[in-house]
Structure formats: C-alpha cells, structure tokens
Design goal:
Layout lengths: L1 H8 L3 E3 L22 H9 L21 H12 L32 E5 L5 H9 L4 E5 L2 H9 L5 E8 L3 E2 L1 H9 L3 E9 L3 E4 L10 E4 L1 H6 L1 H7 L2 E4 L3 H11 L4 E5 L1 H7 L2 E4 L9 E8 L11 E9 L5 H10 L5 E8 L5 E7 L2 E6 L1 E7 L6 H13 E11 L5
C-alpha cells in the first residue's frame, strides 16, 4: 500500500521555469539531486502523469469510391440485408461507442482488451498477439477505446499508431494527449491483406471490392489487374461483414484471414498488398504506468513543445545525442488551440509559422540514469514536457 501511494504521488509532469504554456497552464516540478537520490528519481521519472487536456478535432476516415457506379453499389451493399445473413454474425459482440459505453459481463478471469473495429479486425489480431488469452472488446471509434479503459470497462486498449506503408495515425497521437492513459507496451503486426469472397466464388467473378481506403490503396496493383471497382468501408472487418450480410456474389472484400473465419468467407488470395513488408505498430494503453527495468530493451515515448528561437529544436534533440540515446521516432503535430505564431523576421513585415508539439520515441529505459539526465536537461529547454510511457520493445513481428 505504501508503494502504491508513492507511485501515485510521483507522477512525472512538468513545465520549465520559462513563461507558462498558454494551453497547458502553469505547473512546476521540483527535481532533487540526481546523483544522491537515484532510486526515488527512477520512480519519480518513470511513473507518468496525465494532466494535460488538449482538445482535438474528430478525424474519421473518408469513404472512397472512384466512380458513381461503384458508389451506387456501395449504397446497395450497405442497405441490402438478404436471407444469406451469416448465422454467427448476430452472436458477435457489438462495438462499444464513445457515448454509450456499458460494462459487459465478465468473471474477471481474463484480461479485457479494447480495440477499434469489428471482430476480425487487424487490431483484434494485435490484441491477441499481446494477450493471447484475453477477452477482446470491439469499439466503434478510437476514442471509445480510450474511454473504455478510463471508465474501467476494460483493462487495456491496443490501438494502431503507425504503418510502414501508410505512415502515422495522427488521430491517436492527438488522443494520447487528450486522455489520461499510459503506454505500457507495443505490438508489431505483419499485415496480410487477403481477398475474401462468398463460399464458392472465384476472384475472376468479382466486379467490386470493398475495404478500408488505406487497404484498397495498399493492394492497388492486384485490384487493377482484376479490373474491379473499389468501394470504401469504415474498416476491413466491416467490409468482410458487409459481404457476408449481403451475399452479393460479385462483391469481395480485403481483410484478414481471421475476418474470413469470423464471417464465413473464403480466402480467394493471400498477401495481395503491393509491398510485402507491411507492418503496423500498435500501442498498448493502460490506466497505470509500469515500473521499467533494465533487464531488456526498453523504449520511452515523450511529447514536448519548445520556445521560439533559432536552434532550440537542435538543442532539445542534442540532449539524447550526447548521451548515446537513439531516437527511433520523431513526429510533429501542430498545436490545436494556437497553431500559428507571428514573427517579424523580414523587411516586408511579419511572417506566420506553425507552433508544434514534438512526439519522440527513444531507446532507453527510465530506470537508466542517462535517460533521467536527458529528460532533466530537456525540461530546462522545453516549454512543456510529458512522458507518455516507458515500455519493452516488441522485437517479434
């Protein structure tokens, strides 16, 4: 009980002694002597606070259809509920929503993990890779998964953060600041895009294929060779469900092999993506941080903003370089409430620049003194600094 009290009392949350950040308010962090108080500092820096609230705008994926005829087919697919409804679909768990989250019955014997999408989504595959014996809980949106963890409806959430082909999922970067959760792990999942169809259908019979716009783009070469229309869907599992529900023989879906099993579809072709090496990295989120060690390779994720001025970003990044700490990821996002600053740096008047938040992943554990010293020095430069999590690196794809 005493250790729990210490952990809860020693969140790492700080702003520098410079002028208060206009979005995040004025806070202070008293840092003791690093050399003489190593163990306390380890917990002090490793256990993280979630006090910032940065509003973000809703960003839903756009449904894509290349021509009016395909769009018409898409509407028909979503509205047509034929007698071929798969017998197991009604038994699948319904996704939680951000506005109507309700607790599901559970005996508490399994870890409950939220993910975005329907059963059969790649995110569910990632959740099962992280926790093979878990109970997966689908959510309709990313934010619903965040809220499910915050409201104690689930124990963890597994959400995508970047793809080796499609890049970063910016929505989840924004939500990391909006919600008070901690990164406690990562999962790297090799994406296997499969062409699915109704039982007995061949790929040559297909006239249209439905999937998430990003999946359609990642399989463009195969789809062009088939000469099919491309129809956008909310996610890959929803595409597979649509094909199963509507029983339209000439319509296929791009989704996972798990989705094929869930919705009773045939796998007409596997690994149809243009780039064979297609990996999505997922983050595991929890209400409480973990206490990192030095027994394995760890990664630490932080976010910070800096004062205006030449060379300030270079100075901020150099705190890692001088301690031989490798940066594995750098992402910048404009500040939502104050995206522009005006600087009079020309003879013709003022110029406008974006103000940014910088997200960084560096390969070091917060139990290491070099990581503690680096963040202590960064805090002197940064206007705002927050540690999002320290967690073991996933080396198995």
């Amino acid at each position: 009980m005493a250790l729990d009290s210490v952990i809860k009392a020693t969140f790492f949350w700080g702003c520098s002694n410079s002028k208060p950040h206009p979005q995040l308010g004025s806070h202070s962090l008293l840092i003791g002597n690093l050399r003489n108080d190593f163990l306390r500092r380890c917990c002090y820096l490793a256990v993280l606070a979630q006090k910032a609230t940065i509003p973000v705008e809703d960003e839903k994926p756009l449904l894509h259809s290349p021509n009016p005829a395909a769009a018409h087919d898409h509407d028909a697919l979503l509205l047509n509920h034929s007698n071929g409804f798969h017998k197991d679909i009604n038994m699948l768990p319904k996704p939680l929503t951000a506005t109507d989250v309700s607790s599901l019955a559970s005996d508490g014997s399994k870890v409950r993990v939220a993910y975005q999408g329907l059963p059969g989504a790649y995110s569910e595959d990632a959740a099962l890779k992280a926790y093979p014996e878990c109970e997966t809980v689908p959510c309709d949106e990313f934010e619903a998964a965040f809220k499910a963890v915050e409201l104690w409806l689930v124990d963890k959430a597994v959400l995508p953060i970047e793809n080796s082909v499609g890049g970063s999922i910016h929505r989840n970067y924004d939500l990391l600041l909006r919600h008070r959760l901690h990164i406690v792990g990562e999962v790297q999942l090799h994406v296997n895009h499969c062409l699915l169809g109704l039982p007995g259908v061949t790929k040559e019979e297909l006239k249209s294929v439905v999937s998430h716009p990003q999946a359609l783009a990642q399989c463009e070469m195969v789809l062009n060779d088939l000469g099919v229309d491309k129809i956008g869907a909310h996610d890959t599992a929803a595409a597979a469900q649509t094909v199963a529900i509507n029983c339209v023989r000439h319509t296929g879906a791009i989704a996972s092999t798990r989705a094929a099993k869930v919705y009773g579809l045939d796998v007409l072709a596997e690994r149809i993506q243009d780039d064979d090496v297609n990996i999505t990295r997922f983050l595991v989120l929890a209400r409480e941080p973990i206490i990192p060690g030095t027994d394995r390779h760890y990664k630490t994720s932080i976010v910070f903003s800096i004062e205006e001025g030449p060379g300030v970003l270079f100075k901020a990044l150099s705190v890692f370089s001088m301690r031989d700490i490798n940066l594995s990821k750098i992402e910048s996002r404009p500040l939502k409430q104050r995206p522009l600053r005006v600087v009079d740096d020309s003879n013709e008047g003022s110029a406008k620049y974006f103000d940014y938040l910088f997200y960084i992943d560096f390969e070091a554990s917060m139990a290491e003194p070099r990581a503690q010293y680096a963040l202590a020095q960064l805090q002197e430069i940064a206007r705002f600094l927050r540690v999002l999590g320290c967690y073991a690196i996933d080396t198995v794809v």
